[in-house]
Amino acid sequence: MIKAAIIRCEKNETRCPLTNCFKCLVETKEGFAGYDECMPAGVFTCRCPGDNAVDLAKIIKSKGADVIHFCTCTFATKTDQGWSQEKGGFCKSIDTLIAKVHEATGLPCVKGSAHLPKDYTAKVWE
Ligand code: SF4
Ligand code: SF4
After folding, report:
1. What's the superkingdom here (predicted)?
2. Residues 6+ apart with CB under 8 A from 15
3. Which of 16, 28, 87, 116 is 20–30 Å from 78 (CA)?
4. In the chain, what are the domain boundaries?
5. Start-to-end C-alpha separation, the chain
6. For 85-100, b where at least 16 C-beta lie within 10 A, e where not — what string?
């Protein structure tokens, strides 16, 4: 059983209650595909410019999370043809942010959660 935490972006916090993130987590689909079973380890909200992310991730680790996922909407946008990376998402520095969190915690960090863009395989820092 994998305990997966999610870090979401403040720019979406009043618009999406992570409905599809949680659906994919419990059904082990999209960014969570590959886990036999998965349960939520918690959710935190990153706030610009992202200086809080490392501290939040350390708390996530102390709560026993095995992995941290970063929401797909941080790097992709919904289009008429589905989700696309072409124009990016809410965060211009998501890769740097993920790398910092991974370095500080040693936890595997996954760029992606729900509705992955077509032709995108979730990138993992491990
Ligand atoms: S990835 Fe999708 S479901 Fe998850 S928080 Fe972003 S918009 Fe909501
Ligand atoms: S640093 Fe990126 S992920 Fe964090 S709140 Fe700002 S835009 Fe969102």
Report:
1. Bacteria
2. none
3. 28
4. 2-125
5. 18
6. eeeebbbeebeebbeb
C-alpha 94: how far from chain center: 10
pLDDT at 109: 98
C-alpha 41 to ligand 2 mean position (Å) = 21
Which ranges of the chain have pLDDT less than 70? none
- What's the CATH class of domain 2-125? alpha beta
Q: Which atom of ligand 2 is nearest to the CA of 50?
A: 1
**Res 7: pLDDT:** 98
User: Can you list the positions of beta strands (E) in the chain?
Assistant: 2-9, 38-46, 67-70, 77-79, 82-84, 109-111, 123-125
- Residue ID of nearest Cα to ligand 2 atom 3: 9
